[in-house]
Amino acid sequence: MTLRPRGRTPCGLAGQAKATYGIDGCAITVPVLASLQVGPAAVTVWALRRKRRSFAALAGAAWLAAAVVAGSYLYSTLRGKFLVWARLLDDLHLHGDEDLLDVGCGRGAVLLAAARRLPEGHAVGIDLWRRRDQTGNTRAAAERNAVAEGVAGRVDFLDADARAIPLPDSSFDVVVSSLTIHNIPGADQRAQALREVVRVLRPGGRLRIVDVRAGRRYPDVLRAAGCTDITVRPLDWRMWFGTPGDPLVLVTASKPQ
To answer: With 60 as the cut, is the pLDDT of residue 221 above it?
Structure first.
């Protein structure tokens, strides 16, 4: 496989359309979140009409809880994750000429934010583009977003499985991944994906993974693969995705020189 050479986005491509990144989860996520509120809301109204105030209070509390969960999820997927990843990318202090890989790039939210920080660099996104992981999740949607964001000339997309990345050893200065590896079934298969990520990192390269609770087990695999400077920390409320008290985690690591 041959990737395009580095280069700036051709003039006139940016701004042709607005980038859209969908909602994490499948197409029924929003209807499910909405349906969780319908039942408690209906019971609350019924109880108030029957003047059963104690029952109405309980149902109202359930309604409020469902609304908080739905609001948190939608905020995280539509706004929060962009703010958090912007900070994570800024904290990398990129020089602008790096090669970066996004494992499970989806419609490009993280990949294209990184590409904007690489005016002389190159970014590659790989994915299987499954609709159950993100609404409207297709390679074509990611490519349209790259054009809309004005970075199409410095981005490539590949249909690829994280467990067998079709790229040479030591190809990237930075590898990022957001809410992807936990979707791989089985701890052994997730470990294989992590080993592939380390393989394509250059010596001195850096890794940033955001994932669910399963991410707390990634450091053992990364350490066995030779990584150093490994840290795991919970992310803030902007990445709760409707589950307060069970935040997503950030896993960081480096590949020794």
So the answer is: yes
